[in-house]
Amino acid sequence: MLQRLTVLALGACVTGAALAQVAGSVRLGVTVEEQRAIAEGWSAKNQIIGKTVYNDGGDSIGTVEDLIVAPDRAVTHAIVGAGGFLGLGKHDVLIPVEQFKFENERLTLPGATKESLEDLPVFEYAH
């Protein structure tokens, strides 16, 4: 699911149709056909970031805070906010996208618990 985001929501897949021309030969934007196809995909902002992560028991265990896009434009990891109460004591952990499942309209992390996420190393962005 998250890897599909790379292709659809981030527009990494280009169909080869002519793109708008700006200042000679610079390609800018997408065609109407590409825009329609992309609009049917996932939106990181609307459908993933900020959403609750559940375990396979249906318990809320964290929230997706961000996605990591690798240099090859693949979505590789999600940053999940774990622990804490009302934002206090929360820390971010890094989870590979292949560990997530999308089941019953929910983003799940099978086998995980709040405690197992809290035990993971804290993720910090490089400066």
How would you characterize the overall build of this protein?
The protein has a single domain, classed as PRC-barrel domain (SH3 type barrels, Roll). The N terminus is likely disordered. The longest helix is centred in the first third of the chain and has 8 residues. By secondary structure, the chain is α+β, with helices and mostly antiparallel strands.
The gist of it:
The protein is an alpha+beta fold.
CATH superfamily: PRC-barrel domain
The shape, in one word, is globular
Largest sheet: number of strands, sense, barrel closure: 6 strands, mixed
Sequence of strands across the biggest β-sheet: 6-5-4-3-8-7
Q: What is the correct CATH architecture? A: Roll
Which blocks of ≥5 consecutive residues have pLDDT under 50?
1-20
Strand proportion: 25-35%
Cα-based radius of gyration, to the nearest Å? 17 Å
Mean pLDDT across the residues is: 81
Distance between the termini: 29 Å
Coarse structural class: alpha+beta
Number of domains: 1
Q: What's the CATH topology label?
A: SH3 type barrels
